[in-house]
Design a protein that fits this description.
alpha+beta; four-stranded mixed beta sheet; homodimer; Glutathione S-transferase Yfyf (Class Pi), Chain A, domain 2; Glutaredoxin
Chain lengths: 212, 212
């Protein structure tokens, strides 16, 4: 039904979020991979699509390009409201968005490839770089764990998947990758619940066509 | 009409965003300052309010606490829709959110006090730390400038203030603070237009009660 094009990368956690949102909404999308380690996201052809030089970017049917994974997920939620990615009422909506942003603003951009490469360029060795990523993730997910302490349920906020879960599950991939201590039983239980759903299971990095 | 309490800090650009949103909505709010340089945001009493140990946090009338400035702004937009902070249609909404997130995810959290202190702890000297912040802001605002290249108007997206402007103006304070080259005439024109509005002018850091 759709000629949308998702520009992403199998290992990009921000791309992973959009893959899950598309799957939950049952929206089809052609996928185009840009190899971040090789710097393909900074090629002129890609910068013409997304001047930020980041993945993901979603090209719509008419050629318009959307950037920023959280903005893309909210767009998909607005054009295809079922199932909703946010609760209906303003207060729980704000809590879900805050959790998503605790990951999308305060964890992921501080430990992504670009930042780690900048640390290397400043002379930090691999132990220090890995330690930076690990500490960022551990402290960030500690806060996330506390943000949902008052919200029981199968997922982060109750018994329906929200944007919070869509951010959490990809971030846990990076937590393992950088050797974080997985000290959050609730977050891991939510992850297991999510990965039992095809929308998440089909979006995991190792099942993408560009996986190495 | 309101007993909301905003926990912030005059120099926090994320708090500045919320101050503007409250002013635009004409919502009254008691303000509580937490001195970031003295680490007051990590005091147990504040961590009980916001487990992330970040400002801003908005305590609602009933005691509920909202965190993350972009989530707070969208909450305010939902409970007080006039004037709107986002366009009505999904596509322009996504563009405004993406611009806001280009600042809120990819610039601000990479150059905030917490990150700069971590760089100092790794042995970087002040020149390197300032350079880190300046480069983050310059590259980030370069991208922002390109994101609105196709959107003429008095503000980032047309002739009405949006969440994009609410993020841009505070970030330009930090651009100056860290000595960034202000190479974006359009962004500076938007800033001047915003600062001619009382909602922005009353929210600038130096006019807050806790300004030093």
């Amino acid at each position: 039904m759709s000629a949308m094009r998702l520009h992403g990368y199998f290992r990009s956690t921000a791309s992973y979020r959009v893959r899950v949102a598309l799957n939950l909404k049952r929206l089809s999308c052609d996928q185009f991979s840009h190899h971040l380690r090789k710097g393909e996201q900074r090629a002129p052809a890609y910068l013409a699509i997304n001047p930020q030089g980041l993945v993901p970017a979603l090209e719509l049917d008419g050629g318009a390009v959307l950037t920023q994974s959280l903005a893309i997920c909210e767009y998909l939620d607005e054009i295809a409201p079922d199932p909703p990615l946010l609760p209906a009422d303003p207060l729980p909506r704000a809590r879900v968005r805050a959790f998503a942003q605790a990951i999308g603003c305060d964890i992921h951009p501080v430990q992504n490839l670009k930042i780690l490469d900048r640390l290397r360029a400043l002379g930090l060795d691999e132990d220090a770089v890995t330690g930076w990523a690990r500490t960022t993730i551990e402290e960030g997910l500690d806060a996330c764990d506390r943000l949902i302490a008052g919200s029981p349920g199968r997922y982060c906020f109750g018994d329906a998947v929200t944007l919070a879960d869509i951010c959490l599950v990809p971030q846990l991939v990076n937590a393992r990758r950088f050797g974080a201590v997985l000290r959050w039983p609730r977050l891991l239980a939510i992850e297991a619940a999510c990965l039992s759903l095809p929308a998440f299971a089909d979006a995991v990095p190792e099942r993408q066509a560009d996986a190495e």
